[in-house]
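Exercise 7b. Backbone tokens:
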């Protein structure tokens, strides 16, 4: 699960580049967002929520393909911020960097809240605050010492989590209520939007996918398609099982930070399997926290020239303060981060895609159509989502 930074990895994935690239994508996309989807869909409406997952999922399939073509049209290897600078100038790079910071800080805050609540649900003693502090100290110590989680470990944990939830659905089949699938409330139509967006965000994985494929870049389109579709299927199955067993009424009985899917499962289904699901959720959030925490400290240290200690402080002080002052809840931080950071990323990717088709300096292994009208519709959708989320949260 953990390795020293700079040490090479070996094994099945490294000998099968396509699978390794798919694992990289799925491991990047699937994270804390999956734990928030069932509640927001239960509030808005089951069928509507599933259609929203599929609709936004299709949009992100195209966005990931757009990003893949941008990468393939460029001779030099960059991260997303580098591609933004090349095709949108320094202003584009700054905007994408701000979006990246919002995304990482939002995710780190969500993991702090989620870890405390989930571990408290497992042990049922003490308070979520104590478990969050313990988690924070252990995780930051590991990051400070230079260890990080591997993407494949996170992927395996997510798959095990899904298998556990399916087993719960099988063994608790008699407890699934079809009435839980009939709810619809137009007051909550926008509630799932940001959370689903957060759960589908994985654009930073695209440049890494190209690195993993190396000389097999002709497989990139297929890898992106598979790596984008798998999370959508996971979310649909996960949502069906959780809502079928728990339902809106039971979710509403929980405290805001207990409306995490696996916590609800433990309370309203088989306790043993529910506890196991919570343990897997804890490990999955743990590996994600390590990956994102490491990435942000390295951005501050290597891209902006701060010392190791200052980089460490800048990375972890903000989410810790947000948590201690209880400025948000698990679901709320997913929604804001997804709608704002995910929306900004999506808009910039579309603009970069159009520009790369004009000034790209390499012939790509695959080419999509210009998609001008579709792109404009997506830009308008994401822009409205950003403005709406900012309005309801800050005005």
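Sequence design result:
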């Amino acid at each position: 699960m953990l390795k020293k930074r700079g040490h090479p990895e070996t094994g099945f994935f490294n000998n099968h580049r396509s699978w390794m690239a798919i694992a990289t994508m799925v491991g990047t996309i699937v994270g804390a967002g999956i734990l928030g989807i069932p509640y927001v869909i239960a509030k808005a409406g089951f069928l509507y929520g599933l259609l929203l997952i599929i609709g936004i999922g299709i949009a992100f399939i195209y966005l990931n393909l757009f990003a893949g073509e941008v990468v393939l049209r460029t001779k030099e290897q960059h991260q997303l911020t580098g591609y933004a600078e090349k095709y949108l100038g320094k202003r584009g790079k700054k905007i994408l960097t701000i979006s990246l910071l919002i995304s990482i800080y939002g995710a780190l805050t969500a993991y702090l809240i989620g870890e405390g609540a989930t571990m408290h649900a497992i042990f049922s003693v003490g308070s979520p605050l104590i478990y969050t502090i313990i988690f924070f100290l252990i995780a930051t110590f590991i990051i400070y010492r230079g260890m990080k989680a591997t993407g494949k470990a996170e992927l395996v944990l997510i798959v095990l989590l899904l298998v556990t939830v399916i087993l719960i659905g099988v063994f608790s089949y008699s407890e699934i209520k079809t009435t839980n699938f009939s709810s619809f409330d137009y007051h909550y139509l926008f509630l799932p939007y940001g959370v689903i967006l957060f759960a589908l965000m994985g654009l930073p994985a695209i440049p890494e996918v190209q690195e993993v494929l190396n000389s097999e870049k002709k497989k990139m389109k297929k890898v992106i398609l598979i790596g984008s579709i798998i999370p959508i299927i996971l979310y649909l199955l996960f949502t069906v099982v959780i809502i079928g067993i728990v339902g809106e009424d039971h979710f509403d009985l929980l405290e805001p930070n207990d409306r995490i899917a696996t916590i609800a499962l433990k309370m309203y289904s088989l306790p043993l399997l529910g506890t196991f699901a919570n343990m897997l959720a804890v490990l999955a959030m743990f590996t994600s926290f390590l990956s994102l925490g490491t990435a942000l400290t390295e951005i501050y240290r290597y891209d902006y020239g701060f010392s190791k200690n200052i980089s460490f402080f800048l990375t972890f002080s903000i989410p810790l303060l947000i948590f201690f002052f209880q400025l948000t809840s698990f679901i709320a931080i997913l929604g804001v981060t997804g709608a704002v950071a995910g929306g900004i990323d999506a808009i910039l990717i579309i603009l970069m895609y159009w520009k790369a088709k004009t000034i790209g300096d390499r012939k790509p292994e695959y080419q999509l159509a210009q998609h001008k009208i579709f792109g404009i519709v997506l830009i308008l959708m994401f822009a409205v989502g950003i403005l709406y989320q900012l309005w309801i949260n800050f005005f």
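Instructor comment: The radius of gyration is 20 Å. The CA atoms of residues 9 and 130 lie 35 Å apart.
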